[in-house]
Amino acid sequence: MSGKPRLTYLNGRGRMESIRWLLAAAGVEFEEVYLETKEQYDKLIKDGFLLFQQVPLVEIDGMKMVQTRAIMSYIAGKYNLHGKDLKERALIDMYVEGISDLMQMILMFPFSPPDAKEKNLESIKERATNRYFPVFEKVLKQHGQDFLVGNKFSWADVQLIEAILAVEEKVPDVLSGFPQLQVFKTKMSNMPTIKKFLQPGSPRKPPPDAHYVETVLEVFKK
């Protein structure tokens, strides 16, 4: 064992991508194991690796962690990305939960039936521009600082830049009415650890394609 966190998931974004983002932003190298068959997944369950019979699975600091939120909270705490006190942590958690709601829509989009794709894409655009991005535009404008909480880089900033880029892949002009978020996106994208993660050849996964969707359905079929 190299001492690096070991991530077990499919070779695609899904629920693991936000974990990859957070580790990369913290400057942490990690290893990955990709599930390609239902048999691999069933073996993890049989061997007792998956507490609730679900992935993501992250092996870190001698623990076999499941549940995305718990994994990310641990990583954020370990690498000082979770605020300096309880109030900052509460704000970060609120922002993260909000962004996660938007990311859930993006996560499910590739699995939309063909006749629902246009409607679901419109829903993503509507939620991003009317419910979620205005919150962060206002926060950044009101306090005039580079980061969302305490003028210090946090888990919430990582989640927000991931969400911005994910929505932009589907709605390229989504930030046109959000000047503060445009500045935020540029600053975040140029942070050394994030800039490295955005380069070709990094562990960042491409947008889900038909092969990824087929693999997910095969691995998790009942």
Automatic annotation (TrEMBL):
Pfam families on file: GST_C_3 (PF14497), GST_N (PF02798)
Protein keywords: Transferase
Protein name: glutathione transferase
PANTHER family per record: GLUTATHIONE S-TRANSFERASE (PTHR11571), GLUTATHIONE TRANSFERASE (PTHR11571:SF230)
InterPro entries the record matches: Glutathione-S-Trfase_C-like, Glutathione-S-Trfase_C_sf, Glutathione_S-Trfase, Glutathione_S-Trfase_N, GST_alpha, GST_C, GST_superfamily, Thioredoxin-like_sf
GO biological process, one term: glutathione metabolic process
Family classification: Belongs to the GST superfamily. Alpha family.
Domain GST C-terminal: 85-209
Molecular-function annotations in GO: glutathione transferase activity
GST N-terminal domain residues: 3-83
Enzyme Commission (EC) number: 2.5.1.18
